[in-house]
Structure formats: C-alpha cells, structure tokens
Amino acid sequence: MAATTIELSRRVENAAAQYRLDRYSGPGNPIGTEILRFATGFATKVTRAPQIPLMNTVYGLEDADQLPDVLAFYAATEQRCWVDVPPYVPIAVTDALARNGFRVELYSAVMVAEPLPSVRPGEAAVEEVAAAELDVFLDTMNVGFDTPAAGLPALRRNQSFWCNVPQWHLFLARVGGTPAGAAVLSVHDDVGYLAAGSVLPQFRGRGIHAALIAARLAKAAARQCKIVCGAAAWGSQSQRNQQRAGLAIAHVKSVWTNRPAG
Q1: What is the distance between the alpha carbons of residues 169 and 189, in angstroms, rounded to a whole number?
Q2: Where are the domains of the chain?
Q3: Are the C-beta atoms of residues 183 and 19 closer than 8 Å to each other?
Q4: Cβ atoms 129, 171 nearer than 8 A
Q5: pLDDT (tens digit, 9 = 90+) per residue, 137-168?
Q6: Within a 13 Å sphere around the CA of 12, how many CA atoms are in the beta-carbon half?
Q7: Cα gap 106→195, rounded to integer Å
Q8: What's the number of CA atoms in the CB half-sphere (13 Å) around residue 239?
Q9: CATH topology of domain 125-225
Q10: Alpha-carbon torsion, ordered 89, 94, 96, 102, to 10 deg
Q11: In terms of Cα–Cα distance, which of 194, 192, 216 is closest to 124?
Q12: Are 163 and 157 in contact (CB under 8 A)?
C-alpha cells in the first residue's frame, strides 16, 4: 500500500462521512434526521434516538470557531453529541472540545488498501441482494448487531430505502442456505467503503465476516474503485479481519463526546 498521507486520510474520512449522510438522511428521511452543514463538514441529529452515537455525530470539524454553532445545534433539543477527530485535525479543535466538557470515549482504526487486494472467498456463499430480499438482509444485519427482536419491525421501516441508494451494494452471506451475515459496500467516486458488516451470533468465528469483506472487495474492483477503506473499533476482530484481507491502518481517530461517563 502507498504510504499514508493527509490527503489519503481525508479521502477515506470523506467516504465514511458520505455513507453516514446517506444512511441517516435517505429518501423520505424516515428517522427525521436534522443536518447542520458547515464549511468543512456536517453534524447529524436524530431527536428520537439521542442515545445512539452514529445518529448524532459531527464529521469534518476542523475549525474551533465552528464549535459554538455545533453545540447550539444539539443544545436546541438538549442532546449530547459525538465528534469524530482524525489525527490531522488541529490541536485547537481538541483544546476547544476539552474546554467545553468533551472527553475521548473511544478510538477507531481507519483502514485502507491502495491498490485493492485480491481475497479468496471463504466458507459462506455471499450474494448481492435486491429489494425482494431486503427484509431478510436487514433482519440479519440488525440481529448481527445484537438488536432485540422487538426492535426489528421499526428498523425495517426506517431502513426500507436501502435498496434505493445508488451508491450502495448490499450483501447477504449464507451457510447451507441459512442467512448468517450481512454487509454494505458504499461507493463514492473511486473509493469503496466497507460499511455495516455483522454476523449472527451462532455463526461467529466461522469466517463469515471475512467472506463479506472478500465479496465487497470484488465488487469494489468491478466498480473500478482505486481505494477501499473501512473502520473498526481499535483492536477488534473486525480490524483484524480487514488487516488479514490486505487493508492497512491509515490512521487511528478519536471519538469525543459530552455524554457523561458511565
């Protein structure tokens, strides 16, 4: 892989941010996302789900002078928020976050491959799905993220547009014909983003996540992507699987929050 540069890190972060924008403000805006745009990025807010970080996150904050407007955006509905801070963000921003009661909640490994690696498929059969299988895909993905069964119908409604996002490709993994895992590939320009991959509890540890990565890498190559990227909690199995597939760590970013600890 080519050496990581600030330009490469920005491209990767921009691809991830665009995926979030597509995910939380899709056609019809089913979950009622509010968006604040500023010079270098945007903030998303979902008043019905104030406790979910990915729905209430600030992306691309690089100027400390933009922070007051961001804080006012969330304060208007008395919500907390999370701020993605890649390593190229100026120290003035983290100083301003600390002064305003923010702290680091977690670290995320941001992965990249340039050029795209070639990976052999694993045990699972992985196929791209269309609208007819969307509910199966969504239930598999959401249960893989440990969503209780009672929450699945609401998520199906909220995510019903996922087959209609032109930049996305949805993949379902099966073992012996039984759904086992699901994942998304989001493509923007020549960058493919490995998004939202999950595996059902009973199939974990059997190479399903790796098979989903391989299928998305193949699709990214077919879409003529020059770069593929992803993110994972630092030190997680997802990070290790992406590294085994040929992705390398582009950078580690911190996620700051003003949510009380504990």
Answers
A1: 14
A2: 6-111+253-257, 125-225
A3: no
A4: yes
A5: 999 999 999 999 999 999 999 999 999 999 99
A6: 29
A7: 18
A8: 13
A9: Aminopeptidase (3.40.630)
A10: 130
A11: 216
A12: no
Residue 35 is encoded by which pair of tokens? 């968006």
pLDDT tens for each residue of 41-80 = 999 999 999 999 999 999 999 999 999 999 999 999 999 9
CA 247 to chain centre: 16
Instruction: Give the span between the Cα atoms of 229 and 18, in whole angstroms.
Output: 13
Q: What is the pTM of this model?
A: 0.93
Pairwise CA distance, residues 182 & 198, whole Å: 6
Q: How many whole angstroms separate alpha carbon 166 and alpha carbon 50?
A: 28
Burial-class residue 150 by CB neighbours within 10 Å (0-12, 13-18, 19+). exposed
Kindly tell me the burial class for residue 99, based on how many C-beta atoms sit within 10 Å of its own C-beta (0-12, 13-18, 19 or more): exposed
Cα separation, 126 vs 124, in Å, equals: 6
| Angstrom distance (rounded) from CA 152 to CA 154 | 6
